[in-house]
Design a protein that fits this description.
mainly beta; 4-stranded antiparallel beta sheet; globular
């Protein structure tokens, strides 16, 4: 018995010694200069960055997708809400939809509903596979669906107790592969033929017929491979015909169109006063949201910027090609300052006019919440790579 206790003691000491050699020291809070980024909090995703399959910010929750459909969900204060596996092996799990009391995970052939604490509530098996990422409002989910007659758009009930979960489906004039958009009880979707259609929840066509749209459908001259976006200022349509269109949400008429000069393959990101879109060969491009003319010029483009993370009245925060987070002048696109560390493996857009908090994942699998410092007198911990405890002791 004594020898067994001694072995356990030695093992514990060895483990503790090993842990100490790998411990990292969090830097102490300090007064940081303007033009810096400070850390709000850090959380461990539980995954190596190379194994992360998806990173999403939806409503007020962050989701990190790991291998084998293992998912970690966090709140915006860094608290772990749950870890769980969604779907069956081999299932493709789409972007989650978050509601007041539940999280909705779409898979290729089903919809799984869990509580915000990760308790499984319901699985809805679908008669036809989903073709597009869905959107949800109240008890309804809308998505492109598989069909023998070609592409269709469908409304799926989350609460129907029996029978088919589809409330309705209608022909979409082509396969719908990109996420539809919902705005003020109107559904907007694009098909792979380069058309955009607007319907009410009846479903009936919303846009009136006119000379440009004799069948109430807006047509581009290329395929649409990235999701459209909608807000009160317009329907933003990226097309492989090299144009970003802004359409009137009520009539479908063109308000303005931006010539990118190359096929557009990423979704635009509208904020309070700007529309951002990544253009191959140009980088991130910023456009004034309310254009005075039909054919606007870009306000600026920044070739080093890969994607928008957030913006405020004066700055746009971006992830760069060199894996830094940088603050750009919102008027000119010139870089104002950037993080010292360059190991950000993933980032999400957090569009909130009152809160420009940034969320990123580092190469060692840490989820980091950070914010920019633009005035003097702020106390915080700089966003830097933490030094190992052993290396600090050796100084």
């Amino acid at each position: 018995m004594k020898s067994y206790t001694l072995i356990l003691t030695l093992m514990a000491a060895a483990l503790m010694g090993g842990c100490r050699s790998k411990e990292y020291v969090m830097r102490e809070p300090e007064v940081v200069p303007p033009g810096s980024f400070i850390r709000n909090w850090t959380a461990d995703t539980g995954f190596d960055s190379k194994d992360i399959k998806g990173f999403y910010f939806v409503n007020d929750m962050l989701f990190v997708y790991g291998p084998k459909n293992d998912i970690a969900a966090f709140d915006t204060a860094g608290g772990l809400k749950f870890r769980m596996r969604i779907g069956k092996p081999g299932d493709l799990v789409g972007v989650p939809m978050v509601q007041a009391e539940r999280v909705i995970f779409p898979t290729s052939a089903a919809i799984e509903i869990v509580s915000r604490e990760g308790i499984r509530r319901k699985t809805i098996n679908l008669p036809q596979p989903l073709r597009s990422p869905p959107v949800a409002v109240d008890e309804m989910v809308y998505a492109g669906i598989d069909s023998e007659q070609g592409g269709r758009i469908g409304a799926i009930s989350l609460d129907r107790p029996y029978g088919s979960p589809y409330i309705w489906t209608r022909i979409a004039r082509g396969v719908v592969r990109t996420q539809p958009a919902l705005f003020e009880n109107v559904l907007y979707f694009a098909n792979e033929n380069g058309e955009v259609i607007s319907i009410t929840n009846d479903p009936t066509l919303l846009w009136p017929r006119n000379d440009e749209m004799p069948d109430s459908v807006f047509k581009t001259d290329g395929r649409i491979v990235a999701a459209i976006r909608v807000d009160e200022s317009g329907v933003y349509v990226p097309s492989t015909d090299s144009k970003l269109y802004c359409l009137d949400p009520i009539t479908g008429k063109i308000r303005w169109e931006y010539f990118a000069g190359t096929p557009l393959k990423q979704s635009p990101v509208p904020t309070a006063d700007t529309v951002y879109i990544y253009v191959d060969g140009k980088g991130l491009v910023a456009l004034d949201k309310k254009q005075p003319g039909r054919y606007p010029e870009a306000r600026w483009s920044n070739p080093e910027a890969l994607r928008l993370l957030a913006d405020d009245a004066k700055l746009a925060y971006v992830l760069t090609e060199s894996n830094h987070v940088a603050a750009l002048d919102k008027k000119t696109g010139a870089q104002q300052f950037a993080t010292e560390r360059d190991d950000f493996a993933a980032a999400v857009a957090h569009i909130n006019p009152k809160d420009s908090t940034l969320f990123v994942i580092t190469s060692d699998g840490k989820l980091v919440s950070m914010r920019a410092v633009t005035r003097a007198g702020v106390v915080g911990s700089l966003v830097q790579v933490e030094a190992p405890r052993a290396s600090i002791a050796a100084r």
